[in-house]
């Protein structure tokens, strides 16, 4: 298993449990979490990231995610996340790693499906 696969498995666990310890295991104390790449500012620092993870979601997510490519500093994850009855998102995630395998910087790129006939 690779660093990015390990990290993704931890992310999926934390996403399900929302447990503070699970979220803290993923990110460095000074990590940046970009919910969108063009946000004016990221969520910065582990305490703010833990707090952001407690916000309600539109339903129970059904992720289909896999590692696309990685090296020792960067993992790229691709796939989709379905919120049944709400929306399905196509995702590409950047995970910039610290030497200990936690994320220093996480950037989420996502798209919604095209409307029928577009």
Layout: helices, strands, pairs:
Blueprint: H1 3-17, H2 20-24, E1 27-34, E2 43-44, H3 46-53, E3 62-70, E4 74-83, E5 87-97, E6 103-111
Parallel strand pairs: 1-6
Antiparallel strand pairs: 1-2, 3-4, 4-5, 5-6
Give helix and strand order, one letter per element, not per position.
Answer: HHEEHEEEE
Strand content: 35-45%
Second CATH tier, the architecture: Roll
Measured on Cα atoms, how large is the radius of gyration?
14 Å
CATH class: Alpha Beta
What is the averaged pLDDT score?
Answer: 93
Reported by name, the CATH topology is Nuclear Transport Factor 2, Chain: A
Structural class: alpha+beta
Number of helices: 3
* Number of structural units classed as domains: 1
CA-based shape: globular
Number of strands: 6
User: Which regions contain 5 or more consecutive residues with pLDDT less than 50?
Assistant: none
Helix content: 10-25%
Strand order of the largest sheet: 2-1-6-5-4-3
Terminal-residue CA separation = 40 Å
Give the biggest sheet.
Answer: 6 strands, mixed
